[in-house]
Write a structure and sequence with these properties.
2 helices, 73% helix, 90 residues, single chain, mainly alpha
Length: 90
Amino acid sequence: MVICVIGLGSALAFSQMLRYGRRYLGARKRAAMELEEYMAWYGGQRIVGRETQADGNAWLKQSPTGLIMMLLPVLVALCWAAMIGILIVN
């Protein structure tokens, strides 16, 4: 039972860590794209945000991998919660 509680807590903590890490990296990416806009105005090249404006490239702004990264620990937490339920019933 103790191992299940530790596993559940770890999975939820990891999920939150990934959630806030993605927010932080998203803010950094937006700042880099903003800086690139200023640099492009002076003749520089866009690297981070060069293809995000094109049709069909909306996924470049928000990666589907990030969603999977956050859902996986939540699913693991659900498995731990199910194990706790099974242990309580038995």
